[in-house]
Amino acid sequence: MTYLAGDTVWYLRGDGTWTKATIRLVHAHHSPASYTIVLDGTAIERNTEANRLRRFHQPQGTAEEQVASALALENAAASSKHARKQLLSGNMQAVLLGVASDSRSTAVQMAALHAVLNLVNDGGMAMALPSSDQLSRATSTLTADLVPVQVLNVLQGRLSRAKQLGGAALSWPVMRGITLDEEEAWGDDLPANWFSWRKLWRFTGPGFLMSIAYIDPGNLEGDLQAGAKGGYTLCWLLLYSTAMGFLLQMLAAKLGVVTGKHLAQHCREEYPPVPRYALWVMTEIAVIGSDIQEVIGSAIAISLLTRGAVPLYAGVLITAVDTFVFLFIERLGVRRLEALFGTLIAIMAAAFGVMYHLAHVPTGQVIEGVLIPRLPRQDLQIAVAMVGSVIMPHNIYLHSALVHSRKLRTSNNAHKKAALAYYGMESALALLISVFINICVLSVFAKGFYGKVEEEIGLENAGQYLGQTFGSLMTYIWAIGLLAAGQSSTMTGTYTGQFVMSGFLDLHVAPWQRIGITRTVAIAPTLLVALLSGSQLDALNQWLNVLQSIQLPFALIPVLAMTSSERVMGKAFANSRGIWVAAWAIAACVLSINMWLLFEFASQSMPASVWAYAGVILAVLLYTAFIAYLAVGPERVRAMREGYGIRRASSGVDDKHIPGEAASAQQPLLAHPQEDGT
After folding, report:
1. Do 573 and 505 have their domain in common?
2. Looking at the 3D structure of the chain, how many domains does it have?
3. Same domain, 293 and 346
4. Cβ-based burial of 442 (10 A; exposed 0-12, middle 13-18, buried ≥19)
5. Does the N-terminal or the C-terminal CB of the chain have fewer CB atoms within 10 Å?
6. For residues 117 and 71, what is the distance between their CA atoms, to the nearest angstrom?
7. Which of 119, 150, 165 is the last residue of a domain?
8. Does a structural domain hold residue 174?
9. Residues 308, 387 within the same domain
10. Is-contact 470 358, C-beta < 8 A?
């Protein structure tokens, strides 16, 4: 929104009094932050005008004058963070919502809603946002009969974004200005000059947060196991499995960008109550399992850094509360939080890079391991475990929501394509850094322990072996990197839990409450194992890796089904035939690997009993049937039942699609992909 000549505003004089004025002239300079406004012959710079908003309170005048004043003041506040807070902390939103609900003028209603949604989308202050119910009531009178369809679609898209931010202090802070230029009138295709380094930098952040799941303590344990048992042979597998993960992560990002909703929200809309709640429980189990691994890694790192002065159980208790520190940083803004995560990733890269250098790893053998795929029979189980640990189920839910931390134009296909391109670039860079970190860890343990150590090596005793082989300095470097991995993974797990709970249940819980719940559940088994038998932490970690393998289909299948559906994505963004085949081939490969790993683990750990095997077979059949249901989708299952004469009451699931896209209500999730999809 920009100032327009003839706009009526309430202007705050230097003496603290308000006066009604009309904008006579708008003159834009080359810099968008320095254009001037002339009010009744007095020129006022935009940046100095914003400073006068600090004492802003209740607007005055008629409904039309209030709306015009709000639009102008909101725009002026763009250059002053303090002024923006004043707008959010005052009663401006209540006034605008009242105008939107009560005014008899449709034009005034639309203007008021534009103003309040500007504040909601740009403010990033969750505690001051109106609730979803307020916004829904305010838009209930705006229908296609009164408002042009294009305008209504824009309002509905912005309302959806506001709903994601509204509620009881649940949001990822939204940065003002992290957007493609509003004035760029692109069509459906990207113009030749669409790329901008400045915009790429502004979109950088979500991909790095997503990449943390690729370098969490569970992955580090997989790396050291692969290096100690298989040498440099499996370096190529790290690169290939991360590339597969990149494709799946970009499908999750595409779902979030195109539809304006994350994966958990789509699952709530697409699946009936019983499978929806089952899916939510499975996803929560995956989040808690990941949180336990992060607690284990952080506790081991603290014990190593203190030379055992802080025992493992005490380290577990310390990690129970340190996450609350991140909440204070979050309140400072999303950029500062992303900078913190970037710093932790840099610490990991530096620590493990120094380890690589000090260990005198033969780089030629590492390059050979990366470029030449080899898989000896004795390394098959290690390879399966490595691939199974790379793609984490909760990370797919997380990435589909993280892309909403940037304000996007959802009404223009070219802008969506540009946003996806920027997200793809920064995600690729982030995952390349994760590959570097993982290869460094694998190579150090291959150099020091391959063919030399018979005892099992895990996170718990890795520091001890590194100290004995390379010196005590290596122990501390390893501990620093491990602590950074555990702490960075902790906060992303907290956000995943928030998105999952709000998406599946439409239940908004404050971040500190969410941390309290998940940490209590995660710490109980970890603390018990640490107190009774600290040597069993690695065994617990292995069980958790199997748990993640079991939970993976409950994220993988829904995201593939949603992004393959024209009804959900629209024809322009549904997966093309090539992407459809590649994604489902990867999914089949990963799921087969994980099932094989599960059977191997069960055969080694289960008692040799007929009842035990019968129970496993029954569980596998139910598990497979549920996965098949998620893949086929409720519409097609319903059609199959009716085709066989099996009818029952409707599940109440609405057929939803994004505004502005024609779609068939009967089209199933796994509709045949189009050749020209994206």
Report:
1. yes
2. 2
3. yes
4. buried
5. N
6. 11
7. 165
8. no
9. yes
10. yes
Residues 171, 676: Cα–Cα separation, whole Å:
35
Identify which of 38, 46, 49 has the alpha carbon closest to the alpha carbon of residue 13: 49
**121 in Cβ contact with 174 (< 8 Å):** yes
Give dist(CA 92, CA 67) in Å, integer. Answer: 10
pLDDT confidence of residue 176: 35
The pTM of this model reads 0.68
* Three-state secondary structure readout of 489-553: HHHHHHHHHHHHHHHHHCCCCCHHHHHHHHHHHHHHHHHHHHHHCHHHHHHHHHHHHHHHHHHCH
Axis-axis angle for helices 235-259, 263-270 (nearest 10):
60
DSSP state of 167: S
| 354/471 Cα distance (integer angstroms) | 13
DSSP state string for 182-251:
TT----SS--TT---HHHHHHH-SHHHHHHGGGGSHHHHHHHHHHHHHHTTTTHHHHHHHHHHHHHHHHH
What range defines the domain where residue 267 resides? 197-640
Distance CA 7, CA 1 (A): 12
* pLDDT on residue 592: 80
> Which amino acid belongs to residue 478?
W
- What is d(CA 209, CA 492) in angstroms, rounded to the nearest whole number? 7
Structure tokens of 479?
């501990």
Same structural domain, 446 and 388? yes
Q: One-letter amino acid identity for 281?
A: V
pLDDT digits (tens, 9 = 90+) for 473-519: 899 999 999 999 888 887 787 778 878 888 888 766 666 666 667 66
- When pLDDT is cut at 50, 70 and 90, the band that residue 274 belongs to is confident
Model pLDDT for residues 584-601, shown as the tens digit of each residue: 888 888 778 767 766 776
36-39: strand order across its sheet: 8-12, 18-27, 36-39, 42-45
2 is a domain residue: no
